[in-house]
């Protein structure tokens, strides 16, 4: 799509269709004034120019820069729903926006969201039943990681055209689907929730219920005061939508919101896992990228074409990782676990990996244990005593400015610093924050020596958590270095003869 302001005597819309080979120009009143046959390359080009030429008040409503930004945002949202289309926005002779087509929205989003790379995103497409039923949870039987290669083509009717074209109805999917593009929380997040987007049937809309569901699904995965990048696209029956929520039809009601909220939560949870179905290629950090650039400047080498990004079969094989394929081999500085798998090596920080395990255990089962000998606390305010009572801890007066805690979280029972941990818990007002603090206090400390068996057990438990990518504070737990990246650093694939000076 090409947009801009030109010195035309009327508002103009041009539609050029490859199949029929014609061109139509409309007047400001919407009447066709020129209809002619033309030769054109395959594809459809729509040009809109001087759109508000006869409405000076509308033209002056917004500053030019703000108008352009709003137009860019509108095109970006349309492009996410129609990734197969090439989009261009021009202001005068300057190209403001150019979006290259792709197979999925995953390939579109990094083109206009600053700081996000393709490998920072996870893509899932899940088929759902046509009608919500009690068995809908079983519908997530197969996660489709690649869209069909067949692209749908659309034709637009031209009023009073001597070259009529059949206009099939808008395709309504036989089965409903949910498409997800999300930024992995250990790689990208934003200061505002401005890229938490929902689309329905190829149109971005506002759905406060689904947007809040997305934010809740990412709870305790991003750092504090940071928000995820997430695009959810629903292909559903039009009868399941109520458009009468907003005069401009930008906000919708869903007739069964709880069904769709559950489906969105399930798909996001699936995308956050580490398993053989969901494992995107890790990004190359800046420092590693500098090493690669230095290596490439010093010699000529060939990378095996099987590692090319276009070879999806090889890529899928390289990035599969099963539970037993992540093998602990060493410990660095008594802090990082070195793990090997079929496509490279990982560094896992032991403390925050264990913290993630304990946090999810506490979320599932907040166990308190009675003590024969109470823990004595001092210098507690009335608010702190109230917070401890709210968490289920029994605290009673034990003298002047002294209190006895007779129930504590089970993880803290055998710790020497139990009193200090309870004092920290007295400062938090909700259970979730208490669970985070307890998990952090109880996790393996960095500097602790672990045996190979202990490291392997930790890795196995960590892989099975709901969100193994970040700790409850939003810090990344692991760093992946692929074998192909190592090969480039060490220039292993040299051209025959070049490495021997021939």
Automatic annotation (TrEMBL):
This is DNA mismatch repair endonuclease MutL. Coiled coil: none annotated. Pfam families: DNA_mis_repair, MutL_C. It comes from Tychonema bourrellyi FEM_GT703. Residues 328-450 form the MutL C-terminal dimerisation domain. Residues 128-273 form the DNA mismatch repair protein S5 domain. Belongs to the DNA mismatch repair MutL/HexB family. GO terms for molecular function: ATP binding; ATP hydrolysis activity; ATP-dependent DNA damage sensor activity; endonuclease activity; mismatched DNA binding.
